[in-house]
């Protein structure tokens, strides 16, 4: 897969199959659109292009107003594994929002991307003031001789799969439902940093994970997780929050890795969220906290889970 981060640097000789969108989280609805793009490209012997943005469009208008479901590098990796030929992640900025729908089509889709087949979601909007949509594209496509295919949304229990809804579920801590809509476990990646080593004193040494500040962290609480260290998975008990019993004022993501004794300091680790066990609780004594941690770990050990 080729990554081109500047529209001016893309140099195509032949027609292409293009899909456009933010694709945050690459949920099952996104995957359906991407797979359709790849399928049509192979059928017509053309290159497939995923045109996306290196920053979330909403954050361009209101800075830090929305958290991402994955980093841009994680998005690249996921899309690469799906089989897209070219990813074009450009900054969503003033030059993009100033383009009228006609300019957007002519300057980007026709001149730069040489689109022959355009695959979009049902609610796709583009151009200045979001003035362009699927109906507009279909009319203009006849002039420029390309085809527009609109992919209908996927619904689960009559709810449309969307990144917005998945964010809502994560903020509520509804991890099991997230898996249905995302198509896999929600995960966050980070680097292990030093904590206050309170868990070690309690008999449950934990790793403290530092993650990208733009990534959405699930609701405060205690979770059953799978911890990926290099290529191996371990069961984990993860606390997200402020550990109020020890009066910690700093937000942290701490995980006790069951049956693991290695040193992970400064190493990259991935956390896969399986289910939310309980709320974060302020106990009256350290002993009560220790007992609860013991109960949490025993509960996790009793549950069988195979990561696929």
Shape: elongated
* Average pLDDT taken over every residue: 93
Indicate how many domains the architecture comprises: 2
Please count the helical segments: 10
CATH H level of the largest domain: which superfamily? HUPs
The proportion of residues in beta strands is: 25-35%
Largest sheet: 6 strands, parallel
Q: How large, in whole angstroms, is the Cα Rg?
A: 22 Å
CATH architecture of the largest domain: 3-Layer(aba) Sandwich
| Helical content band | 25-40%
Low-pLDDT residue spans: none
Ends distance = 24 Å
Question: At the first level of CATH, what is the class of the largest domain?
Answer: Alpha Beta
- Structural category is alpha/beta
Tally of extended strands?
A: 14
H/E series: EEHEHHEHHEHEEEHHEHEEEEEH
CATH topology of the largest domain: Rossmann fold
| Sheet with the most strands: spatial strand order | 1-4-3-2-5-6
Organism: Tepidibacter formicigenes DSM 15518
Protein name: Riboflavin biosynthesis protein
Family: Belongs to the ribF family.
Pathway: Cofactor biosynthesis; FAD biosynthesis; FAD from FMN: step 1/1; Cofactor biosynthesis; FMN biosynthesis; FMN from riboflavin (ATP route): step 1/1
Structure description:
32% of the residues lie in helices and 27% in strands. By secondary structure, the protein is of the alpha/beta class. It has two domains: 13-160, HUPs (Rossmann fold, 3-Layer(aba) Sandwich); 187-302, Beta Barrel (Elongation Factor Tu (Ef-tu), domain 3). The strands form three sheets. A six-stranded parallel sheet has the order 1-4-3-2-5-6, with helices on both faces. It has a six-stranded antiparallel β-barrel with strand order 9-10-13-12-11-14. It has a two-stranded antiparallel ribbon with strand order 7-8. A hairpin with a 2-residue loop joins strand 11 (221-229) and strand 12 (232-241). The chain starts with a strand and ends in a 6-residue tail after the last helix. The mean pLDDT is 93.
């Amino acid at each position: 897969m080729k990554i081109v981060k500047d529209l001016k640097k893309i140099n195509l000789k032949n027609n292409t199959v293009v899909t456009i969108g933010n694709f945050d989280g690459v949920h099952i609805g996104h995957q359906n659109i991407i797979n359709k793009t790849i399928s049509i490209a192979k059928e017509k012997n053309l290159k497939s292009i995923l045109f996306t943005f290196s920053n979330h469009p909403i954050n361009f208008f209101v800075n830090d107003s929305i958290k991402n479901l994955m980093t841009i590098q994680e998005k690249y990796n996921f899309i690469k594994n799906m089989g897209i030929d070219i990813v074009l992640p450009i900054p969503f900025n003033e030059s993009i929002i100033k383009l009228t729908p006609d300019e957007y089509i002519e300057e980007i889709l026709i001149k730069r991307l040489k689109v022959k087949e355009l695959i979009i979601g049902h609610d796709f909007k583009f151009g200045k003031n979001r003035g362009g949509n699927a109906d507009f594209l279909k009319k203009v496509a006849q002039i420029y001789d390309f085809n527009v295919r609109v992919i209908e949304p996927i619904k689960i229990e009559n709810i449309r799969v969307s990144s917005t809804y998945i964010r809502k579920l994560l903020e509520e801590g509804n991890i099991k439902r997230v898996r249905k809509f995302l198509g896999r476990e929600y995960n966050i990646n980070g680097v292990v940093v030093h904590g206050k080593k309170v868990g070690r004193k309690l008999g449950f040494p934990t790793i403290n994970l530092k993650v990208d500040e733009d990534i959405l962290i699930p609701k405060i609480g205690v979770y059953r997780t799978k911890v990926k260290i290099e290529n191996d998975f371990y069961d984990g008990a993860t606390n997200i929050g402020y550990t109020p019993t020890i009066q910690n004022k700093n937000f942290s993501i701490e995980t006790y890795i069951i049956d693991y004794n290695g040193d992970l300091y400064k190493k990259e680790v991935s956390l896969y969220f399986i289910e939310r066990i309980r709320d974060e609780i302020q106990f009256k004594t350290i002993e009560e906290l220790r007992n609860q941690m013991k109960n949490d770990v025993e509960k996790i050990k009793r549950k069988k889970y195979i990561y696929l």
